[in-house]
Design a protein that fits this description.
Pfam families: Nitroreductase. This is Nitroreductase family protein. GO terms for molecular function: oxidoreductase activity. By secondary structure, the protein is an alpha+beta fold. It contains 8 helices and 5 strands. The chain has one domain: 3-Layer(aba) Sandwich (NADH Oxidase). 46% of the residues lie in helices and 17% in strands. The longest helix has 21 residues.
Length: 199
C-alpha cells in the first residue's frame, strides 16, 4: 500500500539507543512539537494537552530525579538494571513531558453534565493523539524517540522543578535524540484477529 501518511506511521518506531546529537536545531524541534500538539484533535476542541520541553541540563535533571525516585522503591540488588535503563534515557538530547489540564476537563463536565463521565476518557485520548503526532513528526526529521511512563512516581518532583501548575496532570515522558541503533523488526498479529469487515 502506497500512502504518504501510512509510510510516516510505519517510520515511527520506539528507539531505545539514543544519542544527544540532533540532526536539526533545538529551535526547530520546539516548533515541530508545538505545531504537532496545536493541530492534534481533541473532543469539543477542548485543547487539554499541555507540554514541557526539556533540553540539555534540564533533560538530565528529569532523569536524575527519576533515578533517585526509583532508588527509593527498587530493591538494591535489582537497581543496576534500572539505573542502566534510566541512563539510556538521559543519553538522549531532550525530553517532552505531556500533561492534561484537569481544570478544562472539570469545566467541561460542569458545562455538559450529560457527558461528564466521558470527558476524562476523551482527555486521555487527546493526550495519546498528541503524543503520537509529536512522535511521528520527530521521526520525519530522523529523530528517534521512546515513550515512558514514570508518573505518578515523579509527579511532585516535576511539578516543583519546573513550576508546573497543579491542574496539569503528568501523563507521559517522551525522550528523544539521535538514532544510534534503529528499531528491530516488528511482529504483527494476523489481520483476521484484529479486523472485521462487513459489506
Amino acid at each position: 500500500m502506497s500512502n504518504a501518511f501510512i509510510e510516516m506511521i510505519k517510520n515511527r518506531r520506539t528507539i531505545y539507543n539514543l544519542g544527544d546529537a540532533l540532526p536539526v536545531s533545538e529551535e526547530h524541534v520546539t516548533r515541530l512539537i508545538k505545531e504537532a500538539v496545536k493541530h492534534s484533535p481533541s473532543s469539543f476542541n477542548s485543547q487539554t494537552s499541555r507540554v514541557v520541553i526539556l533540553f540539555g541540563a534540564e533533560h538530565q535533571k528529569l532523569w536524575n530525579m527519576t533515578k533517585e525516585a526509583l532508588r527509593k522503591i527498587v530493591p538494591e540488588q535489582a537497581f543496576a538494571s534500572t539505573e542502566q535503563k534510566i541512563d539510556s534515557f538521559a543519553a538522549g538530547a531532550g525530553s517532552i513531558l505531556f500533561f492534561e489540564d484537569q481544570d478544562i476537563v472539570k469545566g467541561l463536565q460542569e458545562q455538559f453534565p450529560l457527558y461528564a463521565d466521558n470527558f476524562p476518557i476523551w482527555s486521555e485520548q487527546a493526550s495519546g493523539i498528541a503524543q503520537f503526532a509529536v512522535w511521528t513528526a520527530l521521526s520525519q526529521e530522523n529523530i528517534g524517540a521512546s515513550l515512558q511512563h514514570y508518573n505518578p512516581l515523579i509527579d511532585n518532583d516535576v511539578q516543583t522543578a519546573w513550576n508546573v501548575p497543579a491542574n496539569w496532570i503528568l501523563r507521559a515522558q517522551m525522550v528523544f535524540g539521535s538514532i544510534n541503533e534503529p528499531a528491530g523488526d516488528k511482529d504483527f498479529m494476523d489481520d483476521d484477529v484484529r479486523f472485521k469487515v462487513f459489506k
